[in-house]
Amino acid sequence: MSDDQPSTVGVLLAGGLARRMGGGDKPMRTVGGRPILERVIARVASQCDQLILNANGDPVRFASFGLTVVADTIEGFAGPLAGVLTALDWTARQKPETQWVLSAAADCPFLPGDLASRLHQERLDQDAQLAFAASGGQIHHAVGLWSVSLRDELRHALTDEGVRQISSWTARYKSAVVSWPIEPVDPFFNANTTEDIAEAERLATLVKDQ
After folding, report:
1. Helix, coil or strand: residue 51
2. Are 105 and 190 within 8 A, CB to CB?
3. pLDDT at residue 24, rounded to an integer
4. DSSP symbols for 68-121
5. What's 8-204's CATH class?
6. Is the link from the previous residue into 184 a cis peptide, with omega within 30 of 0?
7. CB-based contacts of 160: which residues, under 8 Å, 6+ apart?
8. Nearest Cα to 74, choosing from 169, 173, 163, 167?
9. Which of the two residues, 1 and 43, has the higher pLDDT score?
10. What radius of gyration, in Å, describes the C-alpha atoms of the chain?
11. How far apart are CA 115 and CA 197, in angstroms?
12. What is the distance between the alpha carbons of residues 210 and 207, in angstroms, rounded to a whole number?
């Protein structure tokens, strides 16, 4: 993490049900002989002051990865926004001096090493409250920077308004977007299906392990 980057807590979002893989934990699937989650941690941990994992169910299954595991504070598998809120709440309690949370999907094995620094720079340049990654003309709303100051507004949207889609909520705020190239590998490729795992095996040969 660069010295001039604001204090940032990272959260890896793994709270989904993995229905497209028949259930189970997508980040625990292996790519190139390593669990996807291990690959994600290797790429993101150095970009944050602390890295936590948002996951539901028994946290013991993640014990070998050495991360604090925090379950959704909103019941009913409310989607990635619930994971973001959980991370904002955790940061407000445990790291009150920290004003930013970096989120990333825990099933993206090729995340860029400059993710936090570029998002911070762009949201600073644009005086934005949020910043998101993009590639191939698509914004990846689960990969972004979130201001801890928005946590009560996010809680209201989730619990009182029933908002679930990330873009529906983020549209209310000024957001910065940073785009990454997709060659030789889209850094935001995520393993949603069994076919994706096979593709990730191929792509892993094109990138340098971290």
Report:
1. strand
2. yes
3. 55
4. EEE--SSSS---HHHHHHHHHHHHHHH-TT--EEEEEETT-TT--TTHHHHHHH
5. alpha beta
6. yes
7. none
8. 163
9. 43
10. 16
11. 23
12. 9
CB 145 within 8 A of CB 119: yes
Please give the Cα distance from 76 to 83 (Å, whole number). Answer: 12
116 touches 102 (CB < 8 A): yes
Q: Are 80 and 13 spatial neighbours (Cβ–Cβ below 8 Å)?
A: yes
From the number of C-beta atoms within 10 Å of its C-beta (0-12, 13-18, 19+), residue 65 rates as: middle
What sign for the dihedral angle of Cα 102, 165, 183, 179?
negative
Q: Where are the domains of the chain?
A: 8-204
**Residue 159 to residues 81, 114, 141, Cα–Cα distance (Å):** 11, 34, 20
Tell me the two tokens of residue 35.
């669990």
Q: At what angle do helices 115-125 and 36-44 cross, to 10 degrees?
A: 50
DSSP state of 165: -
pLDDT, position 179: 98
12-59 pLDDT per residue, tens: 999 754 433 334 577 889 898 999 999 999 999 999 999 999 999 889
User: Has residue 124 got a pLDDT over 80?
Assistant: yes
What does the alpha-carbon distance between residue 18 and residue 15 come to, in Å, rounded to a whole number?
9
CA distance 66 to 197: 24
DSSP lists the bridge partners of residue 138 as 135
